[in-house]
């Protein structure tokens, strides 16, 4: 039995008041493996949020096509949004996670311990009983992640969950996501921050409701290997996203014959490249 | 002493300190960590927060003037010196056509119709549109087009300054490039000043003439040049931010003192590759200044809010007390009884440290409503059939309205101090049976809880859009009825749309949490009823009994 989560020929159509239909997603197909990490990128209006919601199993009006939930199971999966405030229903982190567990019908006597453990893991235990106003945006977002992922997580979708956070708190949210991933959870990570991408992790890029790219992070930034040193449009640019400064620099270095394929992407690779910038 | 030009922006944070001078024709970028209060700071520059302590002047025009009765009032002429763009400016569109939208922004400025038309066409051209776009409806534009229209609205105003909050967030690469060009041109050719917040250092730093770094606690501000900042990675950390990843990679190069122009041009940097010399170059002459600001501690206080001391009681005890007191107060037939009820309510609110100050506006409008209803009730025929104002009827109406008002105050206090989820849990434990609760009740309770939970968020949203309406409408205060109505309509429309969005997001979040999938979610027991709860109910019962017994006295 195929346990992959499969989206087959899916379109999401919206009809405006004049009766004109526009497709937010246009005949799109995608497969997601159990325990996979997937970066979903694209500009605003590319349809990535819509796809994120659909992958999370949330009802979307105007969706046509089929989907097999596979490993993700029936019902909606965990989903974390950009704005923490709209997804927090209690008043403190402890209450929030408790509220989430209640709705998972966890036995009452188990709830306090499990809440404690989950908050501890996210480093929120000290703030467990502080009202939201005393928490920073990042801490509230962490609480939202804990509540969303509480106890059942074959799949979790992060919809630009770090775009409102500074780098330090963004890193904490990401670390929490990475931990879930290590425990076998499939993670779909929607982002506009291209520096979050990793060279060997899958990236799916959307533009105008269609998948324009499905491959590795490095290929997304730099395109396919070319030895003629010509600068051609990369998948990143073709999706309307700005090529990061460092990627631009890598291209220039390649064109000047200073670095070779594969072009640097991680901080370690860049540190090595920088070494070679100096006269010996 | 530097000469201040009529179009410069001058900020004096404290009486004794040197002012921060932002030159028109230059681009200033503000960086700061999330939560440091960047938006608050920019809104203060736009006069949207009273009492920030800083003295802001656009040229010779102070942002705040001494108004009637010594109160500070916004100076409409200073407000006209800037055009403001919030984080999601497309949320504020209110017009039915693009033309109406642009005219809305131009309304506060007295311009001839020729000049208005010229400005509108120029603004459209700047965002790449033709005249034919004027008749389009903003509601039929795509998200990206609405964003462009918002940008056109910013550019159409004849102001010296452009204030922008995170202008690149949500823009695609061509949109970001277009914005960069427009801002650079506005500063260089038209001499407008640009002050913007950004977290996108790759985009903003090359554009900046000067940089402001807001400290993590919002208590100080460092002014420096982009070049200085490149040589001082420690300043990012000083402001509680991580050095941006791309700058961290470049750090070894930056230390050699390569010129900033080749940092901005990767091709230039690539040409020098392999020939850079590893020795510390000369750092640029330092002119960085740190400004101390007063408002930080006040702001933190405001954010903290206070926790009411009655939250320690069991919600059931509080509700019971509320019901008892309300019945007793409503039963009062004399003014003495109303006064006693009022005193008890005041004591409860003050003694319980219930933060109802947040609801001042709401309470005041209820008070006005109370008086209006009473006055209206007082108008009628007297015993002789003569029309006129009847003191008796007025007092009778006022008497019953006053009782309602007191009970309303108590109820409001109860609602703001019991957290919604505790309320829900206490009601569930009353309504639940054998660890279960009927789904219909469950739904009802959940709805009520969520409404209560989101009220503070709604309030924040309302205040936010109200501020934007001031920034766009430029009216100084609520001087005229017309002005108030206009501001109300400019606030209400985006506010409602924002409510829909919030509701949509909350619904999605609830669905993803599996709320509603289980017919019978777990019922948690409240921590048990304590001695203090019994004591509270006993005291309130006694008070209510006394009130009840004396209800007819003196009537």
TrEMBL record, chain A:
GO terms for molecular function: ATP binding; ATP hydrolysis activity; ATPase-coupled transmembrane transporter activity. Residues 5-233 form the ABC transporter domain. Keywords: ATP-binding, Cell membrane, Membrane, Nucleotide-binding, Translocase, Transport. Pfam families: ABC_tran. It is found in: Cell membrane. PROSITE patterns: ABC_TRANSPORTER_1, ABC_TRANSPORTER_2. It is a peripheral membrane protein. Its main location: membrane. Belongs to the ABC transporter superfamily. This is ATP-binding cassette domain-containing protein. The lineage of its organism: Bacteria, Bacillati, Bacillota, Bacilli, Bacillales.
From TrEMBL, chain B:
The keyword Magnesium does not apply. This is ATP-binding cassette domain-containing protein. It comes from Cohnella thailandensis. Belongs to the ABC transporter superfamily. It is a peripheral membrane protein; Multi-pass membrane protein. Keywords: ATP-binding, Cell membrane, Membrane, Nucleotide-binding, Translocase, Transmembrane, Transmembrane helix, Transport. SMART domains: AAA (SM00382). Residues 4-242 form the ABC transporter domain. Gene3D superfamilies: P-loop containing nucleotide triphosphate hydrolases. The chain crosses the membrane at residues 317-350, 362-380, 400-419, 535-554. Its main location: membrane. GO terms for molecular function: ATP binding; ATP hydrolysis activity; ATPase-coupled transmembrane transporter activity. SUPFAM superfamilies: P-loop containing nucleoside triphosphate hydrolases. It holds the Pfam family ABC_tran. It is found in: Cell membrane; Membrane. InterPro entries: AAA+_ATPase, ABC/ECF_trnsptr_transmembrane, ABC_transporter-like_ATP-bd, ABC_transporter-like_CS, ABC_transpr_CbiO/EcfA_su, ECF_ABC_transporter_ATP-bd, P-loop_NTPase. GO terms for cellular component: ATP-binding cassette (ABC) transporter complex.
């Amino acid at each position: 039995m195929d346990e992959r989560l499969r989206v087959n020929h899916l379109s999401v159509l919206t009809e405006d008041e004049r009766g004109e239909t526009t497709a937010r997603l246009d005949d799109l197909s995608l497969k997601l493996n159990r325990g996979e990490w997937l970066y979903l990128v694209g500009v605003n209006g590319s349809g990535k949020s819509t796809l994120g919601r659909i992958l999370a199993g949330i009802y979307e009006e105007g969706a046509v096509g089929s989907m097999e939930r596979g490993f993700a199971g029936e019902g909606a999966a965990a989903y974390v949004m950009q704005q923490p405030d709209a997804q927090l229903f209690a008043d403190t982190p402890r209450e929030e996670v408790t509220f989430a567990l209640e709705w998972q019908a966890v036995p009452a006597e188990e709830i306090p311990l499990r809440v404690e453990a989950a908050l501890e893991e996210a480093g929120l235990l000290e703030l467990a009983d502080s009202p939201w106003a005393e928490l920073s945006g990042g801490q509230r977002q962490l609480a939202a992640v804990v509540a969303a992922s509480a106890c059942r997580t074959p799949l979790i979708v992060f919809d630009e969950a770090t775009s409102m956070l500074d780098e330090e708190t963004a890193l904490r949210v990401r670390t929490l996501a990475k931990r879930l991933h290590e425990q076998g959870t499939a993670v779909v990570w929607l982002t506009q921050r291209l520096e979050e991408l990793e060279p060997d992790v899958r990236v799916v890029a959307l533009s105008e409701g269609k998948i324009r790219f499905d491959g590795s992070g490095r290929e997304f930034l730099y395109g396919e290997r070319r030895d003629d040193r010509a600068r051609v449009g990369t998948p990143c640019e073709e999706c309307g996203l700005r090529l990061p400064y460092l990627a631009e620099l890598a291209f220039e270095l390649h064109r000047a014959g200073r670095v070779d394929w594969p072009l640097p992407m991680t901080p370690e690779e860049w540190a090595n490249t920088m070494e070679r910038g100096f006269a010996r | 002493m530097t000469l201040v030009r009529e179009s410069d922006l001058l900020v004096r944070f404290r009486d004794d300190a040197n002012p921060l001078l932002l030159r028109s024709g230059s681009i200033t970028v503000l960086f700061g960590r999330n939560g440091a209060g960047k938006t608050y700071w920019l809104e203060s520059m736009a006069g949207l927060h009273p009492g920030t302590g800083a003295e802001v002047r656009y040229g010779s025009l102070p942002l705040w003037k001494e108004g009637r009765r010594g109160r500070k009032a916004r100076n409409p002429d200073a407000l006209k010196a800037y055009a403001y763009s919030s984080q999601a400016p497309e949320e504020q569109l209110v017009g039915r056509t693009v033309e109406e939208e642009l005219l809305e922004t131009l309304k506060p400025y007295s311009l001839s119709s020729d000049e208005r038309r010229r400005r509108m066409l120029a603004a459209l051209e700047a965002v790449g549109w033709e005249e034919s776009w004027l008749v389009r409806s903003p509601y039929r534009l795509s998200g990206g087009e609405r964003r462009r229209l918002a940008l056109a609205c910013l550019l159409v105003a004849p102001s010296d300054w452009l204030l922008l909050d995170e202008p690149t967030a949500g823009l695609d690469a061509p949109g970001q490039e277009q914005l960069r060009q427009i801002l650079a041109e506005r500063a260089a050719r038209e001499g407008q000043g640009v002050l913007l917040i950004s977290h996108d250092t790759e985009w903003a730093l090359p554009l900046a003439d000067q940089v402001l770094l807001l400290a993590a606690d919002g208590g100080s501000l460092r002014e420096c040049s982009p070049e200085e900042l490149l040589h001082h990675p420690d300043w990012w950390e000083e402001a509680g931010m991580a050095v941006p990843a791309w700058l961290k990679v470049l750090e070894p190069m930056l230390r050699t003192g390569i010129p900033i122009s080749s940092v901005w041009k990767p091709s230039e940097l690539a040409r020098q590759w392999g020939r850079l010399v590893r020795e510390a170059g000369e750092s640029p002459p330092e002119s960085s200044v740190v400004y101390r600001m007063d408002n930080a501690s006040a702001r933190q206080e405001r954010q903290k809010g206070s926790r009411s001391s009655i939250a320690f009681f069991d919600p059931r005890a509080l509700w019971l007390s509320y019901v008892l007191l309300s019945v007793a107060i409503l039963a009062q037939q004399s003014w003495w009884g109303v006064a006693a009820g009022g005193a008890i309510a005041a004591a409860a609110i003050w003694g319980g440290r219930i933060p109802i100050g947040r609801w001042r506006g709401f309470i005041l409008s209820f008070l006005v409503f109370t008086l209006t209803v009473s006055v209206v009730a007082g108008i009628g025929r007297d015993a002789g059939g003569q029309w006129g104002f009847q003191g008796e009827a007025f007092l009778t109406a006022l008497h019953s309205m006053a009782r309602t008002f007191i009970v309303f105050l108590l109820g409001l206090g109860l609602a703001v101090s019991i957290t919604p989820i505790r309320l829900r849990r206490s009601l569930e434990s009353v309504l639940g049976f054998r660890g279960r609760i009927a789904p219909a009740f469950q739904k009802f309770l959940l709805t009520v809880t969520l409404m209560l939970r989101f009220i503070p968020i709604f309030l924040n949203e309302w205040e936010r859009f109200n501020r934007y309406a001031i920034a766009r409408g430029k009216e100084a205060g609520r001087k005229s009825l017309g002005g108030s109505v206009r501001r109300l309509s400019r606030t209400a429309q985006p506010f409602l749309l924002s409510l829909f969005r919030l509701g949509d997001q909350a619904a999605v979040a609830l669905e993803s949490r599996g709320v509603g999938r289980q017919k019978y979610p777990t019922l948690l027991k409240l921590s048990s009823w304590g001695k203090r709860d019994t004591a509270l109910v006993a005291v309130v019962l006694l008070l209510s009994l006394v009130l009840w017994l004396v209800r007819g006295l003196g009537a």
